User: What shape does this take?
Amino acid sequence: MILSCNLDYGEKSLYEFVVIGSGITGLSTSIKLRSYNYNVLLVGVKESASIYSAGIMTLQLESLRDILLVKESIKILKEIIEDAELEEAGIVSRGFISIEDSREAVESAELLRKADVKFKQFDVREASEIWSQLNFNEGEVITFTEDDVLVEPNSFINFLIRHAEERGVEIRVDKVERIEFDRGCRLVLGSSEKISSDIVILCMGAWTKDFLSKIDIMIPTTILRCPAFRFKVEDSIPPFADEVYESYWRPGINKTVVGGGYHAEIVNDSRMFFGEPLKRFRSGAEKLLRLRIKGRVEFVEGWSGPCSVTPDLEPIIDSLPRYENIYFIDGLRGYGLMRGLALGYLLADIASGKKSIDSVEDYRLSRFFKLF
Ligand SMILES: Cc1cc2nc3c(=O)[nH]c(=O)nc-3n(C[C@H](O)[C@H](O)[C@H](O)COP(=O)(O)OP(=O)(O)OC[C@H]3O[C@@H](n4cnc5c(N)ncnc54)[C@H](O)[C@@H]3O)c2cc1C
Assistant: This one.
């Protein structure tokens, strides 16, 4: 049996779209839907992976598809920011460098060329003159791209919330307990209020798996708890990824740097999504930072949050099996802040029928059906 949100009982839903989750995907989906003049409610609990992320939006990624998504996200961000001050949007820096061995650097150059992203590569002697605050090793190649965006996530997400509100998205800070299917579909909120909507979009990140399992829909995501750290440093640094020793960093407020190594641990309980990172992750990150930064490094704070990862590392965008007019997105792993604006816009186009769901065949849940 197919359960539908569409009322067809002569009764009108309160909203054309309700989006659940006010992280990067929920915000971008709502903003795009509102740009088509739909009546949109965004319901979400404040705590999100987006707010706890490290704030890196870089074009220097390993897949062409991801680079193109980040390129699109940066284009969308420019449109959203319009005349606002960069600081107001939480943007702390632009541009990014990647430190690689020479073989990796050739592959990166090829990808950036294919994606039509402007870049420049430097040898160690040239890079040491430009970025004298960093240590480089003989034979490494340093790739610079200029359009990347680095943000303080809390300010950035709050900027997007204000933008969504100004554009007419109604925002409610509340938890959706469940969806009831009785004369259309109704969202039951934590406050016990019930809200009806023609179309529901779940942008619930790492919480999606549990929410869907309650209606017997299984999705093959693994939730990793990823840490990030802030250290005080003497000199301001350029945002960089160290692909040789495996860490990533960006400048933060008050002469700090934010980032970490590629550490993570699996968590099965949403009560464990946030909190203090493991001590060995902190000491590992500090060691990795000291390998590259000259001068004093002092620990300020550490935190962690959930990253939802699929078996093939690609996101899922789909309508819910057995349900009509309910869509969802998940599986953005550690690259969700940077791809979320483009993916949210795509989801809005699909849910509103402006694009066919077949146009995202590679992102659909059915690609995993043989796993069950
Ligand atoms: C430490 C760390 C560092 C990271 N660094 C980066 C980085 O530098 N760059 C990058 O691109 N990505 C980074 N990521 C990954 C990125 O944060 C995520 O991929 C991205 O934020 C996922 O966005 P989302 O909208 O899918 O989920 P979220 O941002 O988690 O949003 C989901 C929202 O849904 C809400 N919600 C869930 N259930 C309900 C419910 N029942 N009712 C109401 N609301 C609900 C949640 O509270 C949350 O607000 C990092 C992640 C972590 C943890």
